[in-house]
Amino acid sequence: MTSDKNKATEVSEYSIEDKLKALFQLQKVHSGIDKIKILRGELPLEVQDLEDEIAGLETRVQNYQDENKTLDTAVNNKKNEIANANELIKKYADQQNNVRNNREFDSLSKEVEFQKLEIELCEKRIREFTVQVNEKKQAIDQAKKLLDERIQDLNNKKKELEDIVSDTQKEEEALINKSHDIEKVIEARLLNAYKRIRTNARNGLAVATVERDACGGCFNKIPPQRQLDIKSRKKIIVCEYCGRILVDDIDAVN
Asked: What is the mean pLDDT of residues 88-110?
C-alpha cells in the first residue's frame, strides 16, 4: 500500500511538459506496434476463420457418418424383417397343407398376403435408405475434399503468419516492454484517458501533433490562442473536435 502511494507521489511530481512528452513517446511506441499488426494484416483472423470452418466440416463429416451408420442399421433391420416374413410365409404355406376347411385356408392365405406386403414395404424402405446412404456418401466425399483443401489453406496461412511473427516478434516485444516503462511515469487517470481515446480513435491515434495550424488527427483548424496554450505545455489540451490530446511539433517534444 505504501509502495503504491510512493509511486503515485513520484508520478505526480512530473511536470505537465514531462507528462506530454511521455504521452507522445507512448503514442509513438503504440503506433509502432500498430504498424506491426498492420503488417500481419488479416492473417490472424483468416487463420481463425479457417480453423472454425475446418471444425465445422469435421463435425459435418462426423454427422454424415453417424447418420449412415443409423441407416445401415435400419437396412439390416428391414432385411431381418424380410427374413422373418419369409419364414412366416413358409410356415403358413405348410399349415395350408393341413387345413380342415376353406375358412382356415383363406385365413392363412391372408396372412401370407400380409407378409408379402410387409416384404414389399421393407424392400421399398431398403431402397429409400440405400439412396440416402449413397447421397450421404457423396456428401462425405465432397466435405472431405473441401476439408483437405481448407487444411492446406490453413497450413499455408499459419506458415505465412509464423514467418511474419518471427520477423517482427523481437521488435514487438521490445516496443511492448518500452510502453510498459513509459506507462509507469504517467498517472493512472491520464493513462486511462489516453487508452480510452486510443480505443475510440479510428487509427489508434490518441496523441496528435499540431500540423499546419490543424489537429494532426482530425485535421480541423486550431485557433491561434489555443496553439499558444499547446506550445506552452502548461496543461493538457484536447482537440475540441476529435478529443485527441494535442502536442506541438514533434521535434519540440521528442
From this structure: 91
